[in-house]
Design a protein that fits this description.
The complex is a heterodimer. Chain A is α+β, with helices and mostly antiparallel strands. Chain A folds into two domains: 230 residues, P-loop containing nucleotide triphosphate hydrolases (Rossmann fold, 3-Layer(aba) Sandwich), CATH 3.40.50.300; 124 residues, Nucleic acid-binding proteins (OB fold (Dihydrolipoamide Acetyltransferase, E2P), Beta Barrel). Helices cover 25% and strands 35% of the residues of chain A. In chain A, the strands form four sheets. In chain A, strands 6-7-8-3-9-10 form a six-stranded mixed sheet, sandwiched between helices. In chain A, strands 13-12-11-14-20-21 form a six-stranded antiparallel sheet. In chain A, strands 15-19-16-17-18 form a five-stranded antiparallel sheet, with no helix packed on it. In chain A, a hairpin with a 2-residue loop joins strand 11 and strand 12. In chain A, helix 2 packs across helix 3, helix 2 packs parallel to helix 4 and helix 3 crosses helix 4. The longest helix of chain A has 18 residues. Chain A is elongated, with a radius of gyration of 25 Å. About 3% of the residues of chain A have low confidence. By secondary structure, chain B is mainly α. Chain B has a domain of 184 residues: Orthogonal Bundle (MetI-like fold), CATH 1.10.3720. Chain B has a two-stranded antiparallel sheet. The model of chain B has no long low-confidence stretch (mean pLDDT 88). Classes of the chains: A alpha+beta, B mainly alpha. Chains A and B meet through strand 6, helix 2 and helix 4 of A and helix 10 and helix 11 of B.
Chain lengths: 363, 338
């Protein structure tokens, strides 16, 4: 079923944590709400669940306006960051609780609990208590409890953040497959862009209660709507150069870059992803600089190039913005460069993103 | 920090630990033993000085037991039954009301306006003055008072006023225990005198319930806030009603707190002396009063007192042993995180 936040606003006293948020999760879609802490993503999720009231706007699940419907009547299942298992109930009782509340006959309930436990590989643990389980197993109990009835939607609040890195990667894959198989609309909150990009059909990026962009992971990566999204998505992050823009060219302290845009902007920011840059022989690229450091990551090497006016001296002044800019360039893993070696940086005009002083994209 | 088990200790440490434990047990248990053997002594033997071992130091006698159970008879059983009824009913009431209040304070946010509280006190004062100085029937006075209060709150609902929070309410509740009870004893006496309830169990039950409620609220509040709210929210989304969550999630998880608090409150009511002394004369007398009464014109009757103390301690000891298994920690383990 679709899940719709229609012009939803939420204020706590004078603080507006969500501003006219408009998001729709299509039927069966995996929608990720991505943002830093304080962006309002968890509040948005709790409003869908009904754990938080709306200040204005509507929440719809399917065709039904549930804005003023109690959480228990919204037919959504939620997985909490803390898992929120019932410590005094066994795994089987935990998983079966939503069914028991609905008065499902005992035999039916047992069969369904067993079938769901099978799916998440918990069949051998049904008689145990949560305290006797590992973190990953507790996580699966929480998932099974959400899956056991077919809810209109799954709501997940950072469900993987308490797992260690290896298990998190494994559970991410499992989660994606499970959601695909069940085909239940899922709204998933995270601050981890890797989780967002890998899991989502579409990602909604929130910052300070305002929706920045809603689109497929590919669209968000390739076509960021504004400076915030451009800087937020991508690891290592996009290189951002400050300067001014004249029709067809961007003027930066370190050089002049040809652009396709015709705007005239006294202050502008040019963004380019590390993988869209190359280091070339000094004087042959669009920008000139010196190698600040190289880092072998494994399958690639990151070269940090300092461009712009030569630093006055000392690390502190090199790091300051006035001295030019630091550009991260992604190179093949066998690339080698010496400290302070003069290099050029080549950038194709079609891989550049231009933003005005307010951070809006200039196309 | 790793827990060190007794079995892993060196023999010397073990001897040390055991001797400290045994020594302290003697300190704790000896007075109880002393009371027990005193209840089997004749008045003369009590006066003779310390005799410790029955049959060796002195010949045990049942005279004190016979006096308390046969000679006094009904005069023993009535106060005893009074104590049982008063302590258990007041504990149940205080736990019921106090736990609900504590849960509400732990989960809901109250923002009472100071001005509304002021208006309530004003209306209360009006009602009391009206009833004291004129012949207004109390039903009329109370209704009028409530109406005046409601109208005043409505009229002043836009007036600026500081608001209080849950912390203030909680402190106000516990502050009721700061005053020594003896200060309130006389007003309470006069109140029940006016109500014609002196020397009734009802009066003492109501008083104990009121006096113990702050302790229940204060202790249970801590137990309720320690239950992760995620558990309750999760149960809500699983479809459970508020009442069902309270009964199936909150109460089972607060069981250790409920057991410990009710035991404490029960013991406080069971042993209470001062307020019972004011509120009862004969019919509603409780067992602590009977114990004290043994120190009469003939001097302290240690042997009778000892019998009463023994039968007074027994139910409390039994109950403590019964509730001990609930007062275990770690019930919340595994609820959240890894």
């Amino acid at each position: 079923m679709t899940v719709v936040l229609d012009q939803v606003t939420k204020s706590f006293g004078d603080v507006e944590v969500l501003k006219r948020l408009d998001v729709t999760a299509q039927d069966g879609e995996f929608l990720v709400l991505l943002g830093a802490s304080g962006s309002g993503k968890t509040t948005a999720l709790r409003m869908i669940a009904g754990l938080e009231s709306t200040t204005s706007g509507r929440v719809l699940i399917g065709e039904r306006d549930v804005t003023h419907v109690l959480p228990k009547n919204r037919d959504v299942a939620m997985v909490f960051q803390s898992y929120a298992l019932y410590p005094h109930k066994t795994v089987a009782e935990n998983i079966g609780y939503p069914l028991r509340v609905r008065g499902t006959p005992k035999a039916d309930m047992d069969a369904q609990v067993r079938s769901v436990a099978d799916q998440v590989q918990l069949s051998d643990y049904l008689a145990r208590y949560p305290r006797q389980l590992s973190g990953g197993q507790r996580q699966r109990v929480a998932l099974a409890r959400a899956m056991v009835r077919r809810p209109a939607a799954f709501l997940m609040d950072e469900p993987l953040s308490n797992l260690d890195a290896k298990l998190r990667g494994h559970m991410r894959t499992e989660l994606k497959r499970m959601q695909h198989d069940l085909g239940v609309t899922t709204v998933y909150v995270t601050h981890d862009q890797v989780e967002a990009m890998t899991l989502a059909d579409r990602v909604a990026i929130l910052e300070q209660g305002v929706l920045q962009q809603l689109g497929t992971p590919k669209a968000i990566y390739d076509d960021p709507a504004n400076l915030f999204v451009a800087g937020f998505i991508g690891s290592p992050p996009m290189n951002l150069l400050d300067g001014r823009h004249e029709p067809g060219r961007f003027v930066h302290a370190g050089g002049v870059l040809a652009t396709r845009q015709r705007a005239t902007l006294a202050r502008a920011t040019l963004g380019v992803r590390p993988e869209d840059c190359r280091t070339v022989a000094a004087g042959t690229g669009v920008l000139d600089g010196r190698v600040y450091a190289t880092e072998l990551i494994g399958d690639h090497t990151l070269v940090t190039v300092s461009v712009g006016p030569a630093p006055a001296g000392g690390v502190a002044s090199r790091m300051s913005a006035d001295a030019g800019a630091m550009l991260t360039v992604k190179m093949p893993k066998d690339h080698e460069a010496a400290f302070d070696e003069p290099v050029g940086v080549a950038i194709e005009p079609e891989t550049q993103y231009l933003f005005d002083a307010d951070g809006a994209r200039v196309r | 920090m790793r827990e060190r088990r007794l079995g892993e200790m060196s023999p010397l440490a073990k001897v040390l630990v055991y001797s400290v434990l045994i020594g302290w047990s003697l300190v704790v248990l000896f007075p109880l033993y002393w009371v027990l053997i005193t209840s089997f002594k004749l008045p003369g033997q009590v006066g003779d000085g310390p005799d410790y071992l029955p049959f060796l130091d002195f010949m045990p006698s049942l005279h004190a037991w016979r006096y308390i159970f046969v000679d006094l008879g009904a005069d023993t059983f009535r106060p005893y039954w009074n104590s049982v009824v008063i302590a258990s009913v007041s504990t149940v009431l205080a736990m019921l009301v106090g736990s609900c209040a504590a849960y509400a304070l732990a989960r809901l946010h109250f923002r009472p306006r100071l001005i509304s509280i002021g208006l309530f006190l004003l209306a209360l004062a009006l009602v009391v003055t009206a009833m004291a100085t004129t012949a207004v029937p109390w039903q009329l006075a109370v209704t009028a008072g409530l109406a005046i209060f409601a109208l005043a709150v409505r009229a002043l609902r836009r007036a600026p006023s500081p608001r209080l929070g849950n912390g203030d309410i909680l402190f106000w509740i516990i502050s009721q225990r700061i005053l020594p009870p003896v200060v309130a004893a006389l007003p309470i006496y006069i109140m029940f005198q006016q109500l014609g309830l002196l020397d009734t169990r009802t009066a003492i039950i109501l008083t104990y319930t009121t006096v113990n409620m702050p302790i229940v609220v204060w202790l249970m509040y801590d137990f309720f806030v320690s239950i992760p709210v995620d558990i309750e929210e999760s149960a809500t989304l699983d479809g459970a009603s508020k009442l069902r969550i309270f009964l199936e999630m909150v109460l089972p998880l607060a069981k250790p707190g409920l057991a410990a608090t009710s035991l404490l409150v029960l013991i406080l009511s069971w042993n209470e002396y001062l307020l019972a002394l004011f509120l009862s004369t004969a019919d509603a007398q409780t067992i602590p009063l009977l114990v004290a009464a043994q120190n009469a014109t003939r001097g302290p009757q240690w042997w009778y007192m000892s019998v009463l103390i023994v039968i007074m301690i027994l139910p409390v000891v039994a109950l403590t042993l019964l509730l001990q298994k609930f007062i275990a920690k770690g019930l919340l383990l595994g609820a959240v995180k890894g």
